[in-house]
Amino acid sequence: MSPGAGRTALVTASSVVSKVAAAHAAEADAARGPVTTVVDAVVEAGFARHMVPAAHGGAAGGFGELVRAVAEVGRGCASAAWFASLCAAVGRMAAYLPAEGRAEVWADGPDAVLVGGLLPAGTAEPVAGGWRLSGRWPYVSGVAVADWALLCGKTAEETPSAKFFAVPKGTFEIIDTWHTVGMRGTGSHSLALEDVFVPAHRALDTADLMAGTAPDAAAACHSVPLKAANGITLAAPALGAGSAVLTRWSDLLSAKLAKQGQTVISGPVDRTGIDLTFARSAGEIDLAELLLTRVAEVADSGAVPPELVARNQRDCALAVELLSGAVDRLFRSAGSTAQDEGDVLARGWRDVAGIAGHSGLQFTAGATAYARLVLSGG
């Protein structure tokens, strides 16, 4: 990140979270989920409240600030950055609940930890006063430390629709399913519940999220169509991890260059190859940052026209593609030291690859949506 850029409260606090997350990264990997010390640091820094409406004590903050803060945490641990980013993102989504539902979710303050089951994996039966919700949701990051879960389900009505339902901890079961190569520390296990009553005031229409029409919206972050913003919360952790990999690679290769006069089995150090690898990878990481910065600027404008919604989707996917390519190149050229499972470079390589595989960051989907909109003339 540029020195002094965006030194707001969340960004400043994120440097502390980054150090805490780095110190516990191996522990989170082994536990396959966020550790208490890191969760506490993330909440204390203000990630959970970052996009909570001001009426409920939140910051109603912006995406530009969030990207910088998440990327800073990602320099310490991509899994911790993912958790921090989704805390803010799901908190923003909960702002679309009816007033009574918002008051219930944030009854104890704006620092409630919210997690999301974003796939429409459940079914909701209409009943008097609300819904009966059942289902099993995969990939619910941070579910073990959640206060509330926001779950997507299809309604069993004559005209079915998709809604999100807010359910408190204690009403759902956590199923241990997260056994992955990368992003191990996110604790993205499955969540299940059966025939749980959800009052009508704790349900919101997916159509409102997609359109960016939050009730009583008083901040730009609550007027953004979902597809204009969701990619950036997924991509920002990879930006921080990529920066950390570049720093670690530079340290390793600087040490190798200092020994270039020695005889080694592999022969003399290829200085030109090192220079080109560094310059190209650093440039691609910089390009990714520029793309995500522009995405954040568009999202922070509030209402976003369809063409820019599609461009934001494209840019987030392209940024992660650039980051994944740069990190892969650095890993392959770093030597045996970087192969150690606990090395920052090895973890970063696994984590960025894991992020790049997310369904919401596939370039084909974002590119075709953008191209077809633009080439058809809108």
TrEMBL record:
Oxidoreductase among keywords: yes
InterPro entries linked: Acyl-CoA_DH_C, Acyl-CoA_Oxase/DH_mid-dom_sf, AcylCo_DH-like_C, AcylCoA_DH/ox_N, AcylCoA_DH/ox_N_sf, AcylCoA_DH/oxidase_NM_dom_sf
Alphabetical keyword list: Oxidoreductase
Domain named Acyl-CoA dehydrogenase C-terminal: residues: 232-362
KW Phosphoprotein (keyword) present: no
Listed Pfam families: Acyl-CoA_dh_2, Acyl-CoA_dh_N
Highest taxon of the lineage: Bacteria
Residue ranges annotated for the Acyl-CoA dehydrogenase/oxidase N-terminal domain, each copy included: 12-88
Protein's UniProt name: Acyl-CoA dehydrogenase family protein
Organism: Saccharopolyspora oryzae
